[in-house]
Task: structure prediction
Amino acid sequence: MWRKSTNRCHSPIPALGSFKVVDVERRDIAELHHKFRDKPYQANRTLGVLSKMFNLAEIWGLRPDGSNPCRHVPKYREVKRERFLSQQELQRLGQVLTEVEREGSETPHMVAAFRLLILTGCRLGEIQTLKWDYITANGMELPDSKTGARRIPLPQPARDVLARLPRNHDAFTQRLHVLRFRCGQLFGD
Result:
């Protein structure tokens, strides 16, 4: 799997060697999955990518229908991870954001995205797709987040971040996204 943060590719493809797509069997997938048993998240994500690849191979006629070798390979149990930044980490992040903002090495939209993520607790996708239309006196009114419509309070520091962003005040701009990024800029999307 591609990990942009380290610029390394952890692809499952080399592990399958020179197999033809039609020759890969469930035991091959199970062995690969087992190699990552000490990293259950990575093992399960690898299995997911391979499953998608073999589904596409079926659609494209490279494998018989219903022959996905990932089927019935049990996933590893994943323990829910939850981590919050420490006060020291938050302060350091704030310093770095202020530095890159002052230097101009990142766009105001990129810096604002990080600040909004921290100040609102929103999901990354919610910040990436945030539109001016969604910002109201009551907060952010997201019509279609991961769990459906959602209202998120906007503390004053978050409103200040939004107020500093460049924008035109017309009906057209209201329908535009709050944050603008160059292709692939924010977390590889």
The two ends are 15 Å apart (CA to CA). The mean pLDDT is 84. The longest helix spans residues 40-59. The helical segments are 26-35, 40-59, 87-103, 108-120, 124-128, 156-163, 171-174.
